[in-house]
Design goal:
The complex is a heterodimer.
Chain A (H helix, E strand, L loop, with lengths): L16 H28 L3 E2 L6 E2 L5 H5 L5 H31 L4 H11 L7 H12 L4 H8 L14 H25 L3 H9 L4 H30 L2 H6 L7 H9 L4 H26 L11
Antiparallel strand pairs in A: 1-2
Chain B lengths: L8 H27 L13 E6 L6 H12 L2 E6 L4 H10 L2 H4 L2 E5 L3 H6 L3 E2 L14 H4 L5 E2 L2 E2 L2 E13 H4 L17 E4 L2 H15 L12 H16 L3 E5 L1 H10 L5 E4 L1 H9 L4 E3 L6 E11 H5 L3 H11 L3 H10 L7 H8 L6 H16 L2 E3 L7 H13 L1
Parallel strand pairs in B: 1-2, 1-3, 8-9, 8-10, 12-13
Antiparallel strand pairs in B: 3-12, 4-12, 5-6, 7-10, 7-11, 7-12
Helix pairs in contact in B: 2-13, 8-9, 9-17, 10-11, 14-15, 15-16
Classes of the chains: A mainly alpha, B alpha/beta.
Chain lengths: 299, 392
């Protein structure tokens, strides 16, 4: 249905009692499981921690935020963000052509099959998946054995495992579907007549792709980018199992401070991360109108 | 049990009650969900049932606990506590562990703090006849007592050192091999200060003449010296990784990812079964000795389960548990009752095998050992330094 401005009528914009009642359970879940815990987390991050009793108390303090700059924590923030950004960039570069094959160059059956294949990593636990990379990348792993037996290297390549390379590889393999699926969704919204028209008018594949398709799927690319980035910032398994000696990440850092029950510091770390991610998502939404991804849903 | 907020009683009490209430409600909710039996009062449970919250490797399985129950009249509900003393102490101090569990088993050193806080109760040794059979040096482990009372019963003991690949590392007799530049990138330590800091301190004290009085309880200056040493070697790329848990440790050795690492002896046996020629070194600086001690939680006393807890601990020292645990994990309960039980029950246990295991551990303790301490006086500083090392 088209509204007066020629766009899709936004059904959700009507404010009726029925709409409110239907939305109430979702609203309760959102507030109860989302907003309230976040608000409590932010509030408690300003409370004080007594290491002698382990209790936190409502004596307002910025000590936890000051501690973020101590003991190398700032470095861990930057390092985690850097590895997550690299993972996200690689995932996005791989996801765009993969999603193009699924969304643009495949029929429904092949698209479904390919999508199912991309979700295979989720069939097993992340821990097992990350641990399996040790057997592949290790000194006597599949890759090194192949390299040595083919005479490409004389001795096993050490940096394949317990390195940033291994961490990024493990995260890309695990989180690539998060990048692919939003782009496939974006492809599904493209009117094929637009593509046919551009080809009829003489555009080659690359011209059509870069001037028509890419701008239309850009919200999907950005959404996938954000999904992967958020998950990569929050993970610890790949860093712990595939990173080098004592490699750290924000999640590991939070776990470390929770060992001594320093909840305010853990909450302060989490609050900063959540705030930065919300800012990132808001900016991306404003700049690239991510909401366009959901327009066909009438939202 | 009293807690002090340290910043005015009203605020502190509010905070504590709020958190305790949250935890309490959470437990009730979880219990109700799990059993659908919220209305059943705690007192309705069998009086001779003990909830044993200990290191997972101390579990001898349903069949084993059934025999313990037959011998002692105490049914054991075993729960793995994760073995990390930090969270265990925290759950006792500010969590609900004392509401749920009756006795605990954790690596030695935390007894003093738990006793000082009133979270655990002293054992009445007169109710544990088998205590007399414990080897004297096990009774003499520091950290078992507080203000003259015994809070920890040494239930499992052993001593750790270095695992080495024979054909790669050659003959190893010092922790110095872990820090040897010739093995750069081929060594590893455990990702836990309770082991890695004491190993390093033992090495620095004995081979580098560092002024360290007690490797298991470092002063702030001694700790700084040890941690700066570790941080330097980490930055130099000396360690291939820091490992965590059985599977990771075994994989490093079995796949020859590292040539030497500080670690647990059972890893050697498991790696050998996978065809790896490795051995457990006898370091000239001495072993890191550890005891997994059984503690009586205050909650058990409050619930009237103290006598049952004593009966159970007595059973753990009576021989069967030692034989079973030895066969399952290669661990030793420090009493001659193990061999006596195996001899009397040779159809169930091989007395020679049990005896060999006991002698092996006794031999380690005949030399120099330093006791692991999971709660040194500066433990908060240990945690901070370990975070610095990780973040370096």
């Amino acid at each position: 249905m088209l509204d007066e401005s020629g766009g899709h009528e936004n059904v959700g914009a009507r404010w009726r009692p029925t709409t409110f009642l239907l939305a109430l359970p979702s609203l309760a879940v959102l507030v109860g499981l989302g907003f309230i815990p976040l608000a409590l987390m932010a509030t408690w991050s300003f409370w004080s921690f007594d290491p002698d009793t382990y209790w936190i108390k409502p004596a307002w303090s910025l000590a936890s935020y000051a501690a973020l700059l101590e003991d190398g924590r700032a470095t861990v923030f930057l390092r985690t963000a850097g590895l997550a950004a690299l993972t996200t960039a690689v995932s996005t570069l791989l996801a765009v052509p993969a999603a193009t094959v699924v969304g643009l160059m495949s029929g429904p059956r092949r698209a479904a099959l390919l999508l199912a294949l991309f979700t295979i990593p989720f069939f097993t636990s992340g821990l097992v998946r990350a641990f399996a990379w040790r057997l592949v990348l290790g000194r006597h792993g599949v890759v090194n054995n192949a390299l040595v037996s083919l005479g490409i290297v004389q001795t096993p390549v050490e940096w394949l495992l317990f390195s940033d390379f291994a961490v990024v590889l493990g995260m890309v393999a695990a989180y690539l579907p998060f990048a692919i699926i939003p782009i496939v969704l974006a492809f599904a919204r493209i009117e094929h007549s637009v593509i046919r028209a551009s080809l009829d008018l003489g555009a080659g594949f690359w011209t059509m792709f870069s001037t028509i398709v890419l701008p239309l799927v850009m919200p999907g690319i950005v959404a996938g980018f954000l999904f992967v980035f958020v998950v990569a910032v929050g993970t610890s398994m790949e860093v712990q199992l595939l990173g080098g000696a004592g490699a750290s990440s924000i999640s590991i850092m939070i776990n470390d401070v929770l060992r001594v029950v320093n909840f305010p510091l853990a909450f302060a770390i989490a609050t900063v991360v959540v705030t930065l991610l919300i800012v990132l998502i808001t900016v991306a939404n404003r700049a690239l109108r991510l909401s366009r991804l959901f327009e066909s849903l009438g939202i | 049990m009293a807690h002090h907020s340290g910043n005015g009683p009203a605020l502190g009490v509010f905070s504590q009650l709020t958190r305790r209430r949250l935890v309490h409600n959470g437990v009730l909710g979880a219990a109700a969900l799990a059993t659908g039996s919220l209305g059943i009062p705690r007192a309705a449970r069998a009086a001779d049932e003990i909830n044993f919250w200990a290191t997972g490797t101390l579990d001898i399985g349903d069949d084993g606990w059934k025999i313990v129950a037959n011998d002692s009249g105490v049914k054991v509900n075993f729960t793995d506590n994760g073995n990390d003393p930090g969270p265990v102490v925290a759950k006792l101090a500010v969590g609900n562990a004392n509401d749920i569990y009756d006795i605990g088993g954790l690596q030695g050193g935390s007894e003093k703090e738990l006793a000082r806080r009133g979270l655990i109760a002293p054992w009445d040794l007169s109710q544990i006849p088998n205590y007399a059979s414990l080897w004297q040096w096990a009774k003499d482990i520091p950290y078992l007592t507080y203000e003259g009372k015994t809070y920890g019963i040494p239930t499992v003991i052993n001593a750790d050192s270095i695992i080495a690949l024979r054909d790669k590392a050659g003959s190893v007799d010092s922790y110095g091999v872990i820090f040897d530049p010739k093995l750069k990138g081929k060594t590893a330590m455990e990702d836990a200060w309770i082991n890695s800091v004491i190993f390093t301190a033992i090495y620095l004290k004995n081979s580098e003449n560092a002024k360290i009085a007690e490797p298991g309880n470092l002063t702030a200056d001694e700790l700084g010296l040890v941690m700066e040493f570790l941080i330097k070697h980490k930055r130099d790329g000396q360690f291939r990784t820091f490992w965590n848990g059985w599977e990771q440790g075994l994989q490093l050795v079995a796949n020859q990812e590292v040539w030497v690492m500080t670690g647990w002896e059972p890893i050697v046996y498991a790696a050998r079964m996978r065809g790896v020629d490795c051995y457990y070194a006898v370091p000239k600086e001495g072993y890191e000795a550890w005891g997994n001690n059984t503690i009586l939680l205050k909650g058990a006393v409050n619930r009237g389960r103290s006598k049952a807890a004593h009966r159970l601990v007595n059973a753990l020292l009576s021989g069967f548990y030692g034989c079973k645990l030895g066969m399952l994990r290669g661990y030793v309960v420090p009493t001659d009752n193990n061999v006596a039980y195996a001899t009397a029950n040779s159809s169930a246990f091989d007395p020679a095998r049990v005896g060999k295991l006991v002698e092996h551990v006794k031999k380690k303790f005949a030399g120099k050992v330093y006791w692991q301490n999971t709660r040194p006086d500066n433990f908060q500083l240990y945690e901070t330094w370990w975070q610095r090392l990780r973040n370096a």
